[in-house]
From TrEMBL:
It comes from Arenibacter nanhaiticus. Coiled coil: none annotated. The lineage of its organism: Bacteria, Pseudomonadati, Bacteroidota, Flavobacteriia, Flavobacteriales. One of its GO terms (molecular function) is electron transfer activity. This is Cytochrome c domain-containing protein.
Length: 333
């Protein structure tokens, strides 16, 4: 066998080996608190639990650029202790007060006519002693309760997509160790989505269109210290009316940068995909063919590595269009 062929075979093997070693390095994490066996004990919802109506002391939030998770829809909530506030860090990330809880619930719409939902899981982050602790809760079949799970699970789901087409997926509820691999940065568990640039958006609340960021400041949930003024809003990468470059960078930020940064699980790579990172320092110019290839394939080499089991066609098309714009003289297939 020629040396070139041997090297070609060796590269994927080395990549997988390094990734597995990184995952194993993070798998030693242990929670500092004991989680309740049932989700209902945290009091996130009022009335019928499956209606997902937040309790009065719980806040709903949305993201300008959401993480793709096999086309699942998500409800995001946070709950902070009374009279406490969230502060803004120089990095644009948020410093939640002691005792804060973040909850993210994943569901599919299984019958668009009656707006019926199939709720699969809720993930919790609870902050204690300045550390975040993580747990996953799997919803039961009657949709009356969700139970703490340590092993993860798979569930076959039939749902209706945004084009009113029925689709099927073997949805994977990750184990805590799988989730921690992406949430761990610089040796600590960190939230990924809620940061200044990703919370600057308008959303509909009880029929009114509201500036979400200003809404939280007005309610004194977030302390405005002017650090957020210069932080650019992440665009909705699904909005084709917005700038292509900004859409693509926002997509890479939320779906890839939590691993591909100097403090993430893929810090041994040459990519740094945060939205705020100057293009010449991202590594995109060097790695763009591999980025496109890894997004398109299935199996062990697929990217994003965790949290997805199927291809994100729209995301692939977006990034492909973006790199083609950057490199018009290098057409891609």
């Amino acid at each position: 066998m020629k040396i070139s062929k041997i090297l070609l075979l060796a590269v994927p093997i080395i990549s997988i080996t390094v990734l597995l070693l990184s995952l194993n390095r993070f798998s030693t994490f242990k929670n500092e608190i004991k989680f309740s066996p049932t989700l209902s004990s945290y009091g996130f919802f009022q009335g019928k639990m499956s209606n997902l109506i937040p309790s009065p002391n719980v806040e709903v939030f949305e993201l300008s650029a959401p993480l793709f998770s096999d086309y699942a829809e998500k409800q995001r909530l946070f709950k902070i202790p009374k009279d406490s506030t969230i502060t803004i860090l120089k990095t644009g990330k948020l410093d939640f007060p002691e005792g804060s809880i973040l909850a993210k619930t994943f569901f599919y719409r299984i019958d668009d006519e009656v707006n019926a939902l199939k709720i699969l899981e809720t993930r919790l982050l609870i902050k204690k002693d300045s550390r975040w602790n993580f747990a996953t809760y799997q919803w039961n079949e009657p949709q009356t309760e969700a139970f703490l799970t340590l092993e993860g699970a798979d569930s076959q789901i039939n749902w209706m997509d945004n084009n009113n087409k029925y689709r099927q997926i073997n949805y994977h509820i990750p184990s805590p160790n799988e989730c921690i691999a992406c949430h761990k940065s610089n040796g600590k568990i960190q939230p990924i989505g809620p940061k200044v640039g990703n919370l600057k958006k308008w959303f509909i609340n009880q029929g009114d269109t509201i500036d979400q960021w200003q809404h939280f400041i007005d309610k004194k949930l977030i302390v405005s210290n002017n650090l957020h003024d210069g932080i650019e809003k992440l665009p909705d990468y699904n909005d084709v009316q917005k700038d292509l470059t900004k859409r693509a960078r926002a997509y890479l930020d939320i779906n890839c940068a939590h691993c591909h940064n100097p403090l993430g699980i893929a810090n041994y790579k040459t990519l740094n995909l945060g939205y705020e990172v100057p293009y010449e320092k991202t590594g995109i110019a060097l790695k763009y063919p591999k980025i496109i290839h890894r997004m398109k394939i299935t199996g062990d080499l697929h990217m994003p590595k965790l949290g997805t089991t199927i291809l994100h066609d729209e995301g692939y098309d977006l990034i492909k269009e973006y790199v083609q714009q950057l490199h018009r003289n290098k057409p891609m297939r």
